[in-house]
Amino acid sequence: MGVKITGKLIGVNSTEITHGPSGAIIKTTAPVDNGGDGSLFSPTDLCAASLGACATTVISMFAHKNNINLSSIEFHIEKEMSSSPRRISNLIVTFLIKTNCSDEDFKRLVGAGKTCPVRKSLSEHMNFEEKYERI
To answer: Is pTM, for the whole model, over 0.85?
Structure first.
């Protein structure tokens, strides 16, 4: 059975989204460049953030399962939009991985990150630039 997510309009250009299993709530609004006030994440911001969160989670799970020392991961994403049609055209993602693992294990962590289900679900019409840096 799939995960149920519900959403509703809560004001001009804004939504409230509820995660069924946990009850966690996320609110969105339209970005400034598309008529919104930009006070919250936009839906496309959440899409970009989901890519970073997914890969980070997968790397963490892989490290834990394989006993690879992993101190922390940070990610930074630059999202670029196209206008016709309006869509995400480019995601530039940098992962900063703090670990003292071997070079071979670091390659395995990077490989795990690239298996993220969000990445595999995004359109082939979107360009990805990924960097994995050991810090």
So the answer is: yes
Helix and strand numbers (H, E) in the chain are 3, 6
Same domain (yes/no): 17, 76: no
- In the chain, the amino acid numbered 54 is C
Q: Note whether 7 and 17 are within 8 A (CB).
A: yes
Query: Any idea what the CATH number is for the domain that residue 108 is in?
Result: 3.30.300.20
Residue position matching structure tokens 């990805």: 128
CA distance 40 to 18: 16
The 10s digit of each residue's pLDDT in 27-74 is 999 999 888 999 999 999 999 999 999 999 999 999 999 999 999 999
* One domain, residues 22 and 78: no
Domains in the chain: how many in total? Answer: 2
